[in-house]
Amino acid sequence: MKKLILILLFIGSSINAIAQKTQVYGTIQDETGMLIPYVSVSFANNTKGTTSNDDGEFVIQVSNEEKQDTLTINCLGFNTYEIKIQDLIDKKDKNIVLTETAISLNEVELLQPDVYVQRAIKQLKTNTISSRHQLTLLYRRASSEEGKARFFTEHYLKIYDKGPAAKKMTSIEVLESRKSADYRFLKKKENHHSIIPMTVRNPLRHLRSTKNIQWTKEGDSSYEGEDVLIIKGKPKDAAPFIMYIGVDTYKVYKVDNAANNSLYVYKNNNEGKLQLAYHSRQWKSGVPISKKLQKNLKKSKPELSATYKHEVFVLDVETNKKKMKVRNQAKAWTTDMGDLKVPYHKEFWANFITPPDTKYFKQIKKELESNFGVPLETQFKLVN
What would the CATH number be for the domain defined by 2-102? Predict the structure, then answer.
């Protein structure tokens, strides 16, 4: 009887804990009404946060205590915006309007572009979280063939990393997973979790010399009141990439790599150290198919166009060693994320606050449901 009472008390406290959470959402735009994507949205007094999606929308879950905290909103080219969470909850109009920052670079004697890059590399450990830290992430991968969605995978995971000063992460643990039915004709597999290329293909992690790269200044911007140079690097035998470097601190706030259309957005933490906030990339190519499949699909050419779109939201960063805990999964280093065996818990995803679906992901999910007329939630339940 005592055990039953304890169980009921535990369930009741869990329900209350969930009920005490509030979803706070908003849409970020500029003064002309243009929606702004990839904007950092952070708590002023803790390490939690999120990033606005392609459509400038964000959602974040807060406790009753956190309602008295402040959201800090930062974006390249705009002034920092702060709003008390309770005020945003009470606000009928959830639009947050950012104002553009005045650039003062005309009054500054600029150095050569490669000098800024050299100094950024030299101060990478100082400017970023370079000791081991734990990142809590939401990882999405959508696969399409011939322009139609065929497979979707979503992971909630934690990793150990040492930031862009290190070449790669050290541990991966996928805690929760869900995936759709796999309607692909091309069962393209990676021999590792898709999060691994997020680090190994980041030019900032492997750029140790500026030689043999042509550097040009492409423009200017700002971040948290600091003027920022937009510098393009063109290696001889690789795709070009662009770095957004602070004129005063030499911090790299953003990396845009033409290879796989990859994007890395960084933000300052409470201690002024840069940390990853958002990453996306897209692989797109024509893939050869067998003559039999070509005939069955009535294709004029022996290939299918395939696209893999990846999106990563950093939800939390933990630097306290006593609070960090990542059990490294060996199979994550050798198995495609779609094949990784992780239990599916419907209750977790029902209570988990995912970023708002963009028009892209709404279309992906709609197409996945239309393939065989099976609702996505049903696919999650049956497949996982």
Answer: 2.60.40.1120
